[in-house]
């Protein structure tokens, strides 16, 4: 029997020449592109960093909606810390709405935060002093000089309206009635207001002045509303104004008030109330006691003669 002639190699799919001694089955055909993956039992999807496999939702017979797919991806990436049990699974319950956590209480405002009682305000003020003590290295004795017990604070927790500048006259009339009565009386001496209103910024102080002047709280006999802040006004100009003016309310920034008291340009003999304007916030969401330099001035005021009058019971603190 004569030997069979060798079979010539075929060029399949542009492959290399396999050589004359390599026999290729003439019935062989290359597999489809995805066959190897199917033989290994893998499915289409995507891999994440921890090798967790997430199936492609389009191949899941329509059992997953967009919300479920997103939940699965978040779970694979470790972002499902707030998901409820069964959330994101096929046939699982729909995603539950999570309650918003309440914001940290700083003091008072009309935007959903808790209105504090005098006891709560005493605690809040201690927290303010603690921050200042850490920032300035104050001793325990120095901080105690600025502490305010709860009986120093006016209880205005029953006021349910938003604590906006427009609602300030209503707030005073309904919840600080003694101050409302005092504002309608004629001051006996110049430079001796019955109320000090501490605002964190000149712009806010100007708005408060505008509202108080137009409110009618002072009646026909009440004194003037003094604007005491640095913007556009020199210290000596304000001292001269106070010396010749009977003032009912002095709306001031803490730093300018501190300067006027140091120069004996402002008297405390007629003072009955001090209002801490804790509602207003600047562009960085900071308040009267969260701006470091403003807080320093407020604490300094309450460590001095002003704080002494408050602790003696002659002056009431109102937090608006």
Characterization of this structure:
The protein has about 325 residues and is α/β, with parallel strands linked by helices. It has two domains: about 45-95, no CATH class; about 120-320, P-loop containing nucleotide triphosphate hydrolases (Rossmann fold), CATH 3.40.50. Helices cover about 35% and strands about 10% of the residues. The chain contains eleven helices and seven strands. It has helices spanning about 35-40, 65-75, 120-135, 140-145, 170-175, 175-185, 200-215, 235-245, 255-260, 290-305, 305-310; strands at about 45, 55, 195-200, 225-230, 245-250, 275, 315-320. The strands form two sheets. A five-stranded parallel β-sheet has the order 4-5-3-6-7, sandwiched between helices. Strands 1-2 form a two-stranded antiparallel sheet. α3 packs across α10 (about 290-305). It is globular, with a radius of gyration of 37 Å. The relative contact order is 0.11. Mean pLDDT is about 75; it is low at about 5-20, about 35-50, about 70-90 and about 100-115. One of its GO terms (cellular component) is nucleus. It holds the Pfam family CMS1.
């Amino acid at each position: 029997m004569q030997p069979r002639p060798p079979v010539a190699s075929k060029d399949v799919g542009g492959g290399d020449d396999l050589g004359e001694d390599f026999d290729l089955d003439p019935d062989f055909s290359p597999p489809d592109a995805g066959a190897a993956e199917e033989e290994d039992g893998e499915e289409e999807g995507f891999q994440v960093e921890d090798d967790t496999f997430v199936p492609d939702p389009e191949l899941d017979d329509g059992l997953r909606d967009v919300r479920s797919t997103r939940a699965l991806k978040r779970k694979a990436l470790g972002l499902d810390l707030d998901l409820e049990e069964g959330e994101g699974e096929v046939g699982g319950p729909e995603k539950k709405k999570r309650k918003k956590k309440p914001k940290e209480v700083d003091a008072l405002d009309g935007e959903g935060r808790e209105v504090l009682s005098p006891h709560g305000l005493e605690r809040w003020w201690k927290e303010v002093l603690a921050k200042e003590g850490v920032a300035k290295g104050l001793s325990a004795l120095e901080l105690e000089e600025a502490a305010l017990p709860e009986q120093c604070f006016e209880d205005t927790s029953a006021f349910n309206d938003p604590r906006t500048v427009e609602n300030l006259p209503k707030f005073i009339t309904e919840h600080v009635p003694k101050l409302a009565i005092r504002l309608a009386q004629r001051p006996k001496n110049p430079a001796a207001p019955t109320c000090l209103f501490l605002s964190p910024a000149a712009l806010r102080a100007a708005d408060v002045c505008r509202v108080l002047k137009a409110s009618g709280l002072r009646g026909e006999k009440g004194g003037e509303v003094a604007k005491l802040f640095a913007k556009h006004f020199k210290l000596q100009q304000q001292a001269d104004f106070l010396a010749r003016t009977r003032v009912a309310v002095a709306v001031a920034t803490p730093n300018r008030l501190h300067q006027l008291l140091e120069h004996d340009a402002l008297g405390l003999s007629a003072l009955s109330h001090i209002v801490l304007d804790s509602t207003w916030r600047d562009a960085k969401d900071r308040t009267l006691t969260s701006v470091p330099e403003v807080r320093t001035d407020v604490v300094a005021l309450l460590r001095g003669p002003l704080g002494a009058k408050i602790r003696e019971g002659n002056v009431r603190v109102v937090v608006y």
